[in-house]
């Protein structure tokens, strides 16, 4: 009897086993359909069918269990994986036992919001993904560690290493030398890093440290078309700075400083410019953004190199401007000391002019730097004196050779007895401490005459000379 329906039973068994596996057909519906035909079969045939049904139920149960585990794995993957960068995410990061590693490191991409606003989120996400992949490769190669995306443009990793600061500096430098391209632009992306001991886990401390190093912005800001224009201009200028550095278009210009006693040009101040399409771009347009994106020190180095080259065959004196962030940058300081050591004759004709003296937080560091450069015969000047800065005791400690009186005071001298009396005080203080005085922003003969009457030693301004390229002046 079984042989009579052998082929049909094999077909039935195959259908009951295979169809539920390969399709989403509910096995109970399939069994019900076959049960409607049970009258056609004898007892032994029905026994085989029942066994087939039990086998199908077992397979069905296994398949459902397997699908459930697969679904759980997918959900688990989503919960611990960042979908944009394919890195592990914050959830995975916090599951690592903190005692396993010595340090926790938090990384922030500087001012990534500019890319978001200019490129749009889709293109900016592509840029962020490239940056994350590159950083992860560097990290794996350098330390054998894995990078995690915490949120937004912030990443983290754990590590065990000696000389943590040196290692992080190496990772930072290697990443920041990488050029990223998107939408016809090419960018160097720069990082802020903070690290902490992992016992206890100080992620919040790292976050707090990074927050103090980010750009300062208002907590509540209304969007306007001006915001978009400003952002676009910033990104364009960032690209301009990069291209200019690569093509030697970051150049020095020189403005003469006039001796009020001899009525001749005494020395030249070196000023930074970017030359683009035959025109010179003012530092007011590029210095701030260069500081935010860590290009400022490259500009400083380029200007110093060019100025030394321009004055190597001249006997003229000249000055170079440095800000406080130059003084606290070890690489820039070492570069300056190296240039002075290699060029002793030029060093004796050089004056280092400190800008933004009211922002100096560690005057002892500035005094130490001044002592070192004076060993080479280099002189020192303080810029913008009188503009909010009044610690005369620190000036005595610093012992500058020159004080440049702030232009806002000079331009408001005529008919202003208060400012005139203040200038007299500065001149007398400077004379007693053997410091020469320089008046900035002198733009009229009447003002120049008053400055001479007040016994200010030197004058600088458009009345005497405008900043010019080396080829346009006689040194």
TrEMBL record:
Residues that span the membrane, as ranges: 9-34, 46-62
GO terms, molecular function: cyclic-guanylate-specific phosphodiesterase activity
Highest classification ranks of the organism: Bacteria, Pseudomonadati, Campylobacterota, Epsilonproteobacteria, Campylobacterales
CDD domains in the cross-refs: EAL
Listed Pfam families: EAL, GGDEF
Domain EAL, residue spans: 234-475
Keywords assigned: Membrane, Transmembrane, Transmembrane helix
GGDEF domain location: 100-234
Protein name: GGDEF domain-containing protein
